[in-house]
Amino acid sequence: MLQRLFFLLLLMPTIAIAQTADPLTTRAEDVQKMLNGSIPPDDLFHDSFFAQVPLQQVKDVVGHFAPVMGPIQNVALLKRGGKSAGTFAFTGSNGMKMEVDLAIDTAPPHKIIGLLLKPPTATGGATTEGLDALLSQLKKLPGTVSFMLMKLPEQKVIASVNSEQLMAIGSTFKLYILGELMSRVAEGEATWETVIATDSAICGGGGRLASWPHGAPVTLHTLATLMISESDNVATDHLLRYLGRERVEQRVAAMGHRNPQRMIPLLATWEAFKLKSVGARAQRKQLASPSESERRSALRGVETLAVEYEDGLGPMAIDTVEWFASASDLCRALDALRSMPDAHQTGRNIMGVNPGLMADTTVWSYIGYKGGSEPGVLNLSFLLRAQSGEWYALSVGWNNPAAPLAEDQLLGLVQQILYTGPWR
């Protein structure tokens, strides 16, 4: 999610239509309207731009920036690069400022040929009141929210909302697999360069690795990077099989989970897909049992189940066929990952490949991220290091078994929370 934070293409098409007095400023105002949702991007860009950046991708990027900035209230020209290019300052209602590099065709109607949306920055200093106001918005989201912001290594709670509430966390459970792998490497039981062969039978959840041929050699480092940065489910299931389900379950407890029984059995992603199918009602009932042996028995014969879902795209069995942790659990897990012996910081480097949301590098020197989502489930978890050297963990989960989530609402709030830091 949020892996394309900006796009920049400078192309030189040659068509001509009507002219305006100041076409560059006019197009900047059009970008403002586009970000505010008052006009679509369809007619703003030249065809040769869309040949490089599909329209849907433009819409996706706009959708990610909109909740971060809020409505754009002011556009100011900072510098020109001739008549057809310049840098503008966009100021949003959320107190965020974003520089925008814009280039337009020299011929009328001066459609956009280049656009760079730079990471937003806060226009003023952070305040506790600002953080409190954002948390109050979190509490208003439909369904259930669990949030914690923690200073490390002392695990001092800075702010929390239902922080001990167990939540479905989706792919964020993969942090525990990473933790077990890091521990094995630290103990000399494996190396990042250890090679295993792919197994085409592990194909349930999808991902880049799903298209690789059977028996392809792949390192544990590559599997872990795909698992964390792209949430590749096939890579995840290869690692889970290599490490062993019960060893990873033990790692869940070792990383500070206060209700580790809720993660037993720790499902492979292909098992989760199967167990959400129409024919798995009996197994789902077993997964809801307080008995560990009964829950484990739900996995017997799961490989023979046909994948067939109920009509509709709403939440499916998120109270049973899932991975569960509270925001508090995940902050402790992030601290465990931070403090594990890692001579070359390989694990943290893997977590930093995809920072999840836009990073203000004037505030943060490092952002490690893992998130998870499916209909009715969203989790965002961050390991953060400020430029001052201080460490923080932030985790927020949102569940609603009754309806899909408006994910941009939470993404925007968390983006703003990140911009109120570092916290004291």
Features:
Nuclear Transport Factor 2, Chain: A; single chain; globular; 2 domains; 5-stranded antiparallel sheet; 424 residues
Q: Summarize this, please?
A:
With 424 residues, this protein is α+β, with helices and mostly antiparallel strands. Helix content is 34%, strand content 21%.
Instruction: Please tally the β strands and state the result.
Output: 14
Please identify which CATH superfamily of the largest domain we are dealing with: DD-peptidase/beta-lactamase superfamily
> Regions with pLDDT < 50 over 5+ consecutive residues?
1-20, 124-129
CA radius of gyration is 23 Å
Describe the structure.
This protein is α+β, with helices and mostly antiparallel strands. The chain has two domains: 100 residues, Nuclear Transport Factor 2, Chain: A; 292 residues, Beta-lactamase, CATH 3.40.710. It is built from 14 helices and 14 strands. The strands form four sheets. Strands 1, 2, 3, 4 and 5 form a five-stranded antiparallel sheet that branches. The protein has a five-stranded antiparallel sheet with strand order 7-6-14-13-12, sandwiched between helices. Strands 8-11 form a two-stranded antiparallel sheet. Strand 3 and strand 4 form a beta hairpin. Helix 3 packs across helix 14, helix 5 runs antiparallel to helix 6 and helix 5 packs across helix 7. The longest helix has 15 residues. The radius of gyration is 23 Å and the shape is globular. The N terminus is likely disordered.
